[in-house]
Specification:
- By secondary structure, the protein is mainly α.
- It is built from three helices and no strands.
- InterPro entries: BrnA_antitoxin (IPR025528).
- This is BrnA antitoxin family protein.
Amino acid sequence: MRKEYDFSKAKKNPYASLLKKQITLRLDQEAIDYFKTISGEVGIPYQSLINLYLRDCAASHRKLDMSWK
């Protein structure tokens, strides 16, 4: 392995912005704790678990039943 590398001609990955986008979500502590507990059991970071769950909901067109009583 070299001690130094020359990155002066390096180019930014053009596909990097298509992979994921950083956003801010406000989640309650119970939801965060739930995914953190599961992440400890399966060995996947909790942010990745939340992303996988949301992708599954979107793929299956799952919707909440928001009926107020």
